[in-house]
Amino acid sequence: MSGCIPHGAGLGFRRELLAELEAGVPAAVNFFELAPENWAAMGGRSARQLRAFTERYPFVCHGLSLNLGGPQPLDMELLARIRAFMLEHGIGLYTEHLSWCGDAGQLYDLFPLPCTGDAVRWVAARIRQAQDMLGMRIGIENASYYVAPPGAEMSEAEFIRAVVEEADCCLHLDVNNILVNAANFGFDPYDFLHGLPLERCCYIHVAGHDVEPDGLRIDTHGADVIDPVWALLDAAYARTGPLPTCLERDFNFPPLAALGAEVAQIVARQACARRTAEVVA
Question: Given pLDDT bands bounded at 50, 70 and 90, which one contains residue 185?
């Protein structure tokens, strides 16, 4: 399946932002990202509003509920709807979380997988199944988590690399998730970053997070991006180049101009990474 692959900097496509976006998209925004589960079945006014944007901008599909690591069979009906939706709107990139989110039913949260060889083989087989259905390589995202499953046979970075290689898929890098997990579990975010299969990276997320009174960091996507996340993004670009990068914001929305300014920061950092690469070359 072919479709448009974005470049530059993007913004999450949220209904809460629609009125402002219809009045004018910030100049820094080159593409949008959406959750296909929230839009694929929409008709009427919502479908018309979406079409008005997909005709002018590239989009990325970032899934929320495929449950790649879960115990139940993959939802092939959902994958079929996603495939049809992507074809309808000319979307060329689909990513999902390296996690599980359901068993007998949807749990509406993302849970980590144990870093074991059995889990590598299980989730990689399901990623290959999803790729066969969609007719493309997909990106899997390193997820935030708050309890580490027991019985680890390898580090999380080694686990992610093993899954990407076994599944022959791409990596969707989330630098905010690295920083959140590093702060909560006491590891070096840069060591983790450089242990990932960055040569397979296709797409990047940045976002803000909240800090609880006890210091626990929560991946909320409801605050501004902080300087350590920007710095980690710069370190990623030094390895991957300025890949398409999306600003995630899921609630507590500031005015669109403020979001546009954050997206413009991505653009500026991409330009800096590009200039640095040219000097080195």
Answer: very high
3 lies in a domain? Answer: no
Determine, yes or no, domain membership for 2: no
Is position 4 within any domain? no
Q: β-strands 31-34, 9-12: how paired?
A: parallel
Number of domains making up the chain:
1
Cα–Cα distances in Å, from 109 out to 65, 103, 146, 181, 201?
A: 9, 12, 12, 16, 24
Q: Are residues 173 and 198 in contact, defined by beta-carbon separation less than 8 angstroms?
A: yes
Any alpha helices (H) in 8-145, and if so which ranges?
18-23, 44-54, 76-89, 117-134
Q: How far does Cα 198 stand from its chain's mean position?
A: 14
Residue 84 belongs to domain spanning? 9-280
For residues 4 and 128, the model is more confident at 128
Q: How far is CA 273 from CA 49, 200, 230, 239, 266, in A?
A: 35, 18, 13, 10, 10
Structure token pair of residue 151: 């019985």
CATH number at residue 165: 3.20.20.150
Task: Specify whether the backbone of 58 is left (phi greater than 0), alpha (psi in -120 to 50) or beta.
Answer: beta
